């Protein structure tokens, strides 16, 4: 590619059709330009659900969600985006079409190209359609906001809840008091029903089959957690509007973060047992770099935390921006030492490409480069993302 070459932007907005519905199979075939919320609406019309759920579902398109293997709040129960897909249709760099829309649960005819393309961030091919796996809709859903004394207690509460409700927990979100304070600081009128606001909060949601009581099960989790000193307070939603209000707390925190302005943001994953120790050690290490505010929150159920570092109250981000690289290096080095990931659900793109080189397994990187060269020898598919263009 010459220095004067212009980048090519490919839009899948025109691929916006639901090609087919298979109610007896709980399958839908959707083109890559279909917005996630539309897929959810169609699934609801079919009497089932598409469980992928995240804050941007009103604008995010299926192709992009699969290209980045999006996560969201329901990973604990239903898995990542790739787990919701039975097959894909994709176009490779040379125009070859992968016609992989078979609606099969089992198909061991060679390499699974579906999972190779999903999560490749457009560097191996362009997803044009997908056969999506739909799930039965729970007959009853329950949501509770629980105050816990520590992150370690939250982890023990997760284990307790899984024992009392095996396979029924849809979401288990961890939030820190700093995130709640950011809501007020950023001007969001979000009501937090627990006063005073505790150091740590857990938002738990369960989905149950007919004949089971969501409120009764949540009350049992609360009672057993209280007896085990894992819970110190809590509220259980008694209506859909109350459920929505509790979820508004969690879903507005990222917006408040953007208004406050982070010095450094991190999308990390850790083995569950390592999370409490990481939180205490990382805070101590960052304090040695400078004075910061830390908002750690996210999907405790699957080990994915959004670990964001902010300037002190009243100080502009620009005043400490020169420390951002040191903060990120400290966080990522610690995550890597604990066998975690520095890119849990948002992909590598170009910004995190050096992180793959620093922390990635050499054997994995070798295989990735070989695959990239085999499928895109000219490096025209999303050049510069994931792998360096000169090395891809």
Describe, in plain words, how this protein is organized in 3D.
With 392 residues, the chain is of the alpha+beta class. The chain has 3 domains: 119 residues, Uridine Diphospho-n-acetylenolpyruvylglucosamine Reductase, domain 3 (2-Layer Sandwich), CATH 3.30.465; 119 residues, 2-Layer Sandwich (Alpha-Beta Plaits), CATH 3.30.70; 77 residues, Alpha-Beta Plaits (2-Layer Sandwich), CATH 3.30.70. The strands form 4 sheets. A 5-stranded antiparallel β-sheet has the order 1-2-6-4-5. It has a 4-stranded antiparallel β-sheet with strand order 9-10-8-11, sandwiched between helices. β13 and β14 form a beta hairpin. α5 crosses α7. It starts with 17 loop residues before the first strand and ends in a 17-residue tail after the last helix.
